[in-house]
Write a structure and sequence with these properties.
The chain is an alpha/beta fold. Helices cover 35% and strands 17% of the residues.
């Protein structure tokens, strides 16, 4: 049986490092242009500028604006977010939390597609910002099964490495309330750069964290978390 008290559930929201391609330094512009050539895949109309909205998914060209986490305290599920325009500040606070409460060998991080996206993205951006990477995120020298990571998408694969299943789809087929009732991941950049609405992004991110925890409950044949069991702390 999974020990839910040892798990920190998380999700991150990322945006491009600058609002537009033109605002990048000349050096980074050239490097993004090279990346854009790979992304264009023969599309003659694609340009580095038109493809720049994809920069958010690459840690080299994007930044984190929100990390939401959730954890069980008895029967209660608590949600907390680290969000700011200052990436270094939010990552420093997040790292401090990991070092204080999730620095043991049995602590685990859980995310959907976390092994391919959230966990390495956080570690890379910490390195960019000269923040010491917490022990739980360090994977150097470890075999895949030796890491402290739980990936709900990987659990759903049951050994099948050919497919990607979205969090929204899994919630739908497992009868879990959708976390995508306001915005989705493709709209985060617009909400951030055009609407300057970090609060909305935080709320969306927290819904994803709750959905991930609900998936783990379903995978363990446990009752879902009810609304009155959720505490929001910031």
């Amino acid at each position: 049986m999974t020990d839910f008290s040892k798990i920190l559930f998380l999700d991150i929201e990322t945006v491009s490092h600058e609002k537009t391609y033109d605002q990048l330094s000349e050096r980074i512009q050239k490097l993004w242009a090279h990346k854009a050539e790979q992304l264009a895949k023969g599309d003659e109309n694609a340009t580095p500028e038109s493809l720049y909205d994809r920069a958010a998914i690459y840690a080299e060209f994007g930044k984190i604006v929100c990390i939401s986490v959730g954890f069980f305290n008895g029967e209660r599920f608590r949600l907390k977010s680290f969000y700011s325009h200052d990436e270094k500040a939010l990552l420093t606070d997040f790292a401090d939390m990991l070092n204080r409460f999730y620095n043991t060998s049995d602590a685990q991080l859980c995310a959907h597609n976390g092994k391919e996206f959230d966990f390495p993205y956080i570690a890379r951006r910490m390195l960019v910002n000269s923040i010491q990477i917490p022990r739980i995120l360090q994977v150097a020298g470890k075999k895949p099964w030796e890491t402290n990571f739980i990936d709900t998408m990987e659990l759903w694969k049951f050994g099948d490495y050919k497919s990607y299943t979205s969090l929204d789809l899994l919630c739908a087929i497992l009868d879990i309330p959708t976390p995508k009732d306001d915005i989705n991941g493709s709209e985060v950049g617009r909400v951030y750069w055009q609407e300057n609405d970090l609060e909305r992004i935080k709320t969306y991110c927290q819904k994803d964290v709750l959905a991930i925890a609900q998936l783990m409950r379903r995978f363990n044949y446990l009752p879902l978390i009810t609304d009155d069991q959720v505490d929001y702390t910031n």
